[in-house]
């Protein structure tokens, strides 16, 4: 049972307050979509969930992120351990250029100094889970950069899955991809949600509706810090939004 | 064959997009200017030969004025007053740039021409024992100096490369508080006069009686000269590694150390090797710091920790001021060997960086 | 919206402390290595100061401004005035000669040459920068000096009535003019590569806009390129100046070091250079005289450090994108 929740998250960069009082609960084995116009802090927020946030030099934080009831920002918590349990896929595909496809999948083990009984099996299962095994099974030794953009992104997903995370964070995983690749990644997400909790930032409203069961709408108005304007089931946020601004946004009136 | 002949050369250039790099498009007046720039020297050279003028004088007092005059006329003919100013600018730019080429070619050519005359198998293998400035070139050589240079540079490299790369890591991979101070000091070190670096080691070890002139002192004196080059180039190549790769590694649960070792460093590998090569190229010809720390020697010394060691630059230095022809030839030979070493390092660095950019371009 | 309380939200400490031992060792060794450069610069200063202090103490202010050097151990007089001025004079000549060449080269590479020529010229600049100064000294002494002496003689014949081109000895070799040329060859690549870097980072749209408005190359250069990149070029020139002031071996071969100030007769066969003087006197110097040479090293170090600091400050300011 893995439960992830954010309590009163506030974020600063230097003196600039960019996120205010975000409270979200991410239920187990569900997909939560974070939507909102550019610059509203959704990407910033998702990075607080696995302590990638603190890598930005001027970053500041208030509030708690609870993973199974433990605040991951407690001084006694090793960020490396957090990131092992909470995996992340980035906006731009970032396979390691000096490694082969196979080595990319296994890179997490090497980077985290873990051993695995059956590395070849792990490569296959991970690539299968990212639904790309059939495409690459004959050329596992090729450099990762020889793949297309969409394949590279799925390789990055496979790379994360090899570490068997409980939670997978996806920061606009399809924004750099063509519609076909986007489709396949969405299918992957729907399969994966049977096994893990997924948080996905997306600009694509249809995508949010297709893959998520609950949605949070972020908005930053006129230089104010970003806030969650509306949070509920995806159906409710898109079809019966309570807040007028949400209504405007999901119906394409701004952003 | 037939086919080529059948295809007439299209007189109009291939149409380029009008807005692509307009500053590089060479206008009609530009073409005329360049044609003048290339044909007039020939005429000037002939004129100079006929009149018996010195070449560089002909260049300055005949070639440049004629070129300017024609350029101005051409420029005015094609685009009025604006063309006139442009022609003058272009001609001066080409003239000054060509002067640099002439100087460089003069240096390289004189070293190659005179140095290769001195080179022989015996010259690059034997040492300098019992050799004076008058000894015929058939005896003795600079083998001991080649070995000495390699040893001294090797020791400097062993110390400086880890230090320089670690400093670059500190500058790029950490959020340390003293980063700007370190960067400034490295920049300041890059302007350190080489003789001062030598004096520093002399003051620290030799003047205080810790040692006599010795090989390792020379190696130490080269460290402050090599460090800034290695650090700067390494820093630049680490900065070129996209931040997303580091993030990708860290998000997989990597420690910072592993992320650097397995992801960032392999991605910057060719840049880091270039840093080492350029660092070695920077110090391989240094003379003054070695003169005040290890001095010169005639015998072959393989021990960096006992006695003076000969190096190529100090070998060159000891023969240069002599009036005897053979001594001067030895100096040229040494210069040629140094130049070859620099060229090897340089070409290796170029090939590496070319490979890197080619890979990037190919995979984009 | 609920009432917004202005009560400050607690900001947590986000010190990303390395957790594993390997990480701690990694960060520690990087920090240690980086801070060793601070130690290195301090050591250089401390040891040179320590060894040279006797000379500063015995010679006083005249060490800088006087112009006598007498190595009689009974009555040691060490004053580097002519050398210091000579360094400045030679470097100035070098900079004046190098600047047009370097800027032209950079302009040619960035704004005129096609990619292929530009690349060749860039490689050339790098190659010139990699030439060791002892090789340039050899070339300067045996190849260039006779040629440049010929130029000097001609300048004297044509313009000798102007004081700076006067020559009373009739000897045109080993003059500041020739040393300045050799120094110019050394610093052209430094200035050219900084300038090229700055030119190539200029806003292309700005230049296209200027050309599209019908401005020619010249007015674009004067009104668009120079104002935006002038600062950076000045910084590059200062970097070259720093290198010129510290140049040792090459000048040693092509300049006649004389302990009598040659204020501006650049064609006269007498001049000075602090760095070359150290090299010239080092071989035969006794212990006290070595202190005097160390002192010259300190002066040189301080001067070049100062010039370099200003230069890198200006260059950094002119390139805000390199942070």
Automatic annotation (TrEMBL), chain A:
InterPro entries: AAA+_ATPase, ABC_transporter-like_ATP-bd, ABC_transporter-like_CS, P-loop_NTPase, PstB-like. SMART domains: AAA. PROSITE patterns: ABC_TRANSPORTER_1, ABC_TRANSPORTER_2. Signal peptide: none annotated. Keywords: ATP-binding, Nucleotide-binding, Transport. The keyword Zinc-finger does not apply. One of its GO terms (cellular component) is membrane. This is Unannotated protein. The lineage of its organism: unclassified sequences, metagenomes, ecological metagenomes.
From TrEMBL, chain B:
Pfam families: BPD_transp_1. Residues 146-353 form the ABC transmembrane type-1 domain. Keywords: Cell membrane, Membrane, Phosphate transport, Transmembrane, Transmembrane helix, Transport. Signal peptide: none annotated. GO terms for cellular component: plasma membrane. One of its GO terms (molecular function) is phosphate transmembrane transporter activity. Its main location: membrane. It is found in: Cell membrane. It is a multi-pass membrane protein. The chain crosses the membrane at residues 26-51, 57-75, 87-112, 145-172, 184-207, 259-284, 331-353. GO terms for biological process: phosphate ion transmembrane transport. Belongs to the binding-protein-dependent transport system permease family. CysTW subfamily. This is Unannotated protein. It comes from freshwater metagenome. The lineage of its organism: unclassified sequences, metagenomes, ecological metagenomes.
UniProtKB/TrEMBL annotation, chain C:
This is Unannotated protein. GO terms for biological process: phosphate ion transport. Pfam families: BPD_transp_1. InterPro entries: MetI-like, MetI-like_sf, Phosphate_PstC, Phosphate_Transport_Permease. CDD domains: TM_PBP2. GO terms for molecular function: phosphate transmembrane transporter activity. Keywords: Cell membrane, Membrane, Phosphate transport, Transmembrane, Transmembrane helix, Transport. Residues 84-311 form the ABC transmembrane type-1 domain. It is a multi-pass membrane protein. GO terms for cellular component: plasma membrane. Belongs to the binding-protein-dependent transport system permease family. CysTW subfamily. The keyword Magnesium does not apply. It is found in: Cell membrane. The chain crosses the membrane at residues 25-50, 83-111, 123-152, 172-194, 232-259, 290-316.
């Amino acid at each position: 049972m893995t439960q992830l929740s954010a309590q009163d998250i506030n974020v600063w960069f230097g003196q600039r307050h960019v996120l205010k009082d975000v409270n979200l609960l991410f239920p187990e084995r569900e997909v939560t979509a974070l939507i909102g116009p550019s610059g509203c802090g959704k990407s910033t927020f998702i990075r607080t969930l696995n302590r990638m946030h603190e890598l930005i030099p001027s970053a500041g934080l208030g509030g708690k992120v609870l993973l199974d009831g433990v605040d991951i920002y407690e001084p006694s918590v090793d960020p490396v351990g957090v990131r092992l349990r909470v995996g992340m896929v980035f906006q731009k595909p970032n396979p390691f250029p000096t490694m082969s496809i196979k080595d990319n999948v296994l890179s997490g083990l090497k980077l985290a100094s873990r051993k695995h009984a059956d590395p070849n099996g792990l490569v296959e299962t991970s690539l299968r889970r990212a639904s790309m095994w059939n495409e690459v099974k004959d050329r596992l030794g090729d450099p990762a950069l020889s793949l297309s953009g969409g394949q590279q992104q799925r390789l990055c997903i496979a790379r994360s899955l090899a570490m068997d995370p409980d939670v997978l964070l996806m920061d606009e995983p399809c924004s750099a991809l063509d519609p076909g690749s986007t489709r396949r990644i969405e299918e992957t997400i729907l399969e994966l949600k049977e096994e893990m909790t997924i948080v996905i930032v997306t600009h694509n409203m249809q995508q949010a509706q297709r893959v998520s069961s609950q949605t949070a709408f972020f908005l930053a108005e006129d230089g104010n810090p970003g806030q969650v304007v509306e949070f509920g089931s995806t159906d409710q946020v898109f079809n019966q939004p309570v807040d007028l601004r949400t209504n405007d946004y999901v119906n394409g009136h701004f952003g | 064959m037939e086919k080529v002949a059948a295809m007439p050369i299209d007189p109009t250039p291939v149409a380029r997009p009008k807005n692509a790099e307009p500053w590089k498009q060479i206008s009609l007046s530009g073409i005329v200017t360049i044609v003048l720039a290339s044909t007039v020297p020939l005429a000037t050279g002939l004129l100079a030969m006929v009149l018996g003028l010195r070449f560089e004088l002909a260049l300055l007092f005949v070639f440049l004025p004629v070129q300017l005059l024609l350029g101005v006329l051409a420029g005015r003919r094609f685009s009025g007053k604006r063309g006139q100013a442009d022609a003058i600018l272009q001609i001066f730019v080409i003239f000054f740039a060509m002067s640099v080429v002439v100087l460089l070619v003069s240096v390289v050519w004189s070293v190659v021409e005179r140095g290769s005359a001195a080179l022989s198998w015996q010259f690059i293998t034997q040492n300098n024992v019992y050799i004076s400035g008058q000894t015929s070139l058939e005896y003795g050589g600079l083998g001991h100096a080649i070995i000495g240079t390699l040893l001294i540079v090797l020791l400097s490299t062993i110390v400086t490369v880890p230090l320089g790369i670690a400093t670059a890591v500190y500058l790029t991979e950490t959020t340390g508080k003293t980063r700007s101070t370190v960067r400034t000091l490295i920049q300041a070190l890059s302007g350190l006069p080489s003789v001062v670096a030598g004096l520093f080691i002399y003051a620290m070890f030799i003047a205080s009686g810790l040692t006599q002139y010795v090989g390792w002192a020379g190696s130490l004196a080269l460290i402050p000269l090599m460090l800034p080059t290695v650090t700067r180039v390494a820093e630049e190549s680490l900065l070129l590694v996209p931040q997303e790769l580091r993030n990708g590694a860290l998000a997989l649960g990597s420690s910072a150390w592993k992320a650097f070792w397995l992801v960032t460093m392999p991605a910057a590998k060719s840049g880091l090797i270039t840093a080492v090569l350029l660092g070695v190229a920077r110090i391989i010809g240094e003379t003054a710091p070695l003169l005040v720390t290890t001095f010169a020697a005639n015998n072959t010394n393989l021990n960096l920790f006992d006695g003076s060691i000969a190096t190529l630059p100090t070998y060159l230095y000891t023969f240069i001021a002599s009036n005897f022809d053979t001594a001067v030839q030895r100096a040229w030979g040494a210069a040629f060997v140094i130049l070859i070493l620099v060229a090897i390092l340089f070409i290796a660095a170029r090939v590496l960086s070319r490979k890197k950019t080619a890979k990037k371009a190919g995979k984009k | 919206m609920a009432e917004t309380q202005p009560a400050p939200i607690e900001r947590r400490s986000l010190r990303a402390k390395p957790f594993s031992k390997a990480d701690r060792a990694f960060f520690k060794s990087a920090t240690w290595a980086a801070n060793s450069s601070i130690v290195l610069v301090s050591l250089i200063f401390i040891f040179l100061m320590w060894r040279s202090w006797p000379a500063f103490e015995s010679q006083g202010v005249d060490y800088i401004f006087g112009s006598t050097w007498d190595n009689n151990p009974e009555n040691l007089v060490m004053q580097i005035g002519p050398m210091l001025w000579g360094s400045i004079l030679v470097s100035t000549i070098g900079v004046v000669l190098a600047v047009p060449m370097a800027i032209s080269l950079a302009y040619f590479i960035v704004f005129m040459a096609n990619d292929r020529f530009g690349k060749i010229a860039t490689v050339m600049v790098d190659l010139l920068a990699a030439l060791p100064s002892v090789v340039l000294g050899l070339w300067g002494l045996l190849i260039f000096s006779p040629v440049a002496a010929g130029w000097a003689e001609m300048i004297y014949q044509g313009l000798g009535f102007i004081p700076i081109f006067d020559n009373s000895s009739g000897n045109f070799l080993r003059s500041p003019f020739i040393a300045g040329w050799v120094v110019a060859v050394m610093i052209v690549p430094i200035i050219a590569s900084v300038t090229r870097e700055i030119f190539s980072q200029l806003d292309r749209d700005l230049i296209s806009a200027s050309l599209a408005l019908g401005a020619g190359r010249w007015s674009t250069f004067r009104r668009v390129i120079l104002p935006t990149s002038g600062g950076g070029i000045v910084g590059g020139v200062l970097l070259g100046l720093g290198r010129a002031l510290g140049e040792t071996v090459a000048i040693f071969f092509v300049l006649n070091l004389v302990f009598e100030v040659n204020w501006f007769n650049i064609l006269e066969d007498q001049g000075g250079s602090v760095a070359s003087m150290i090299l010239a006197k080092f071989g035969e110097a006794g212990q006290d005289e070595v202190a005097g040479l160390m002192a010259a090293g300190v002066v040189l170090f301080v001067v070049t450090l100062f010039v370099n600091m200003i230069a890198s400050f200006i260059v950094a300011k002119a390139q805000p994108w390199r942070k």
